[in-house]
Specification:
The chain is α/β, with parallel strands linked by helices and about 290 residues long. Helix content is about 40%, strand content about 20%.
Length: about 290
């Protein structure tokens, strides 16, 4: 059996991680974490600062290797150095600051950079760059210098660069944390569109509004798994959210207040546009 015959998924089994420069009494950034991410999933990783979110993100594509336990990507163990290149082509990574990821003098050159390093033929590079720009809505900026773009546009360039390499999974580590509201909306819209087309996503964030877009949520607290489930379940976990410093999105809090006033709203309305549509529909029916 080859690695291509394995069911596509990322599997973490008993994973712990301790940074090498720890003192004689090591403090683990992650402890005994077991997790499975299947093809087509949209997993969001939540938690306060220092909870281990970014450490976990880097374990997915072998930027970090577990101190204990194992991480397998489509059956390939990240501890096997001979497989690192293949693993990293399957698990793409988007970081917080788009300026740290952009190397090209114009947008299309930047997106082509990774493909050139993979040795992709020029005609296929051209096709992939055009396809990736179209997917994230930046085709009109192909000849623009990236430094003249907005933060949200730069982050979409970074996403296009990873997308062009056609990874099986994309990890996004706080991709909106340095963006203004408009840029954040642009990137979140792109993320939703990518998932709707079947791309497996792992989103790391501390914003509950963003987490509500995911299919599953994982909450870390001091490096340990505190919650794994669907967004609607986390809304009901008041004590857990307080411990993890996770505030409910405004739409959910407003819907709760309206229910207390006797307005018959569904139990889970995580996004403002859903709440507005529901209220408009109720208004028309009365």
């Amino acid at each position: 059996m080859t690695y291509e015959d394995v069911t596509p998924k990322i599997v973490l089994q008993g994973v712990s991680y301790c940074y090498p420069d720890s003192t004689a009494s090591p403090v683990y950034a992650l402890s005994s974490l077991t997790l499975e991410v299947k093809a087509g999933d949209f997993l969001c990783i939540l938690g306060p600062n220092g909870s281990g979110k970014s450490t976990l993100g880097r374990l997915f594509n072998a930027l970090l290797i577990p101190t204990e336990g194992s991480v397998q990507v489509d059956g390939m163990d990240t501890r096997n150095t001979a497989l690192l290149w293949t693993i990293r082509t399957r698990v793409g990574m988007i970081f917080q600051n788009p300026d740290n990821q952009i190397v090209g003098t114009i947008v299309e050159e930047d997106i082509a950079f990774g493909l050139e390093n993979l040795g992709i033929p020029p005609n296929e590079i051209r096709a992939r760059v055009d396809w990736a720009m179209e997917k994230v809505g930046i085709s009109t900026y192909a000849k623009h210098p990236p430094n003249l773009l907005s933060g949200g546009q730069k982050q979409r360039v970074a996403i296009a660069g990873v997308l062009a390499m056609k990874p099986s999974y994309i990890v996004l580590d706080e991709p909106t944390s340095l963006l203004d509201p408009q840029g954040r909306e642009e990137v979140l819209r792109t993320i939703q569109e990518l998932h709707s087309e079947g791309i497996t996503l792992i989103l790391i964030t501390h914003r509950m509004e963003e987490a509500m877009l995911a299919c599953r949520l994982l909450v870390l607290e001091k490096g340990k798994l505190a919650f794994l489930g669907i967004p609607a379940q986390l809304v009901e976990e008041d004590e857990l959210r307080r411990h993890a410093h996770l505030d409910l999105p405004l739409a959910i809090r407003l819907a709760q207040l309206l229910r207390e006033k006797g307005i018959p709203l569904p139990p889970f309305l995580p996004r403002p546009e859903e709440l507005v549509r529901t209220l408009c529909a109720l208004k028309r029916s009365t």
